[in-house]
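PROTEIN DATA CARD
Card holder: HIT-type domain-containing protein
Chain length: 133
Origin: Microctonus hyperodae
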Amino acid sequence: MKDCCVCLANDSRYKCPICKQNYCSAACCKAHKTVGCEPSRVENVEDVEPQKIVKYDFPTEDTVPLEKLQLLRYSDDVKECLNNPHVRDIIRGILHHSDPTSAIASAMTEPIFVELADACLKVVEPPDDEKPC
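Structure generated from the sequence above:
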């Protein structure tokens, strides 16, 4: 196991999603957040997951390439929308709904969810004036 970045205990089981430093408890996590952290620029070889080859079983003309979907994690607009607990609740509701299609239709009546959808679309399908020639 790795040492906790706060108390230096040798049983850190958790990793900060932002800077990837290890910590051992909720108390150490809170202490770490008060200091503030930034995404690490250099990743350790052991922290990098091997690229999994993922392919769509039934791609269509509307299927978004996986490379574009992966760009969503770097969008500040998407991250800002996901900071809203109401948006996260809506997403959880969609994931656990027996009819996700109707749940998404219902979610699209919420302006905050439409804002998230627009932010995602801006990443995977930029407007015509932002598309490369």
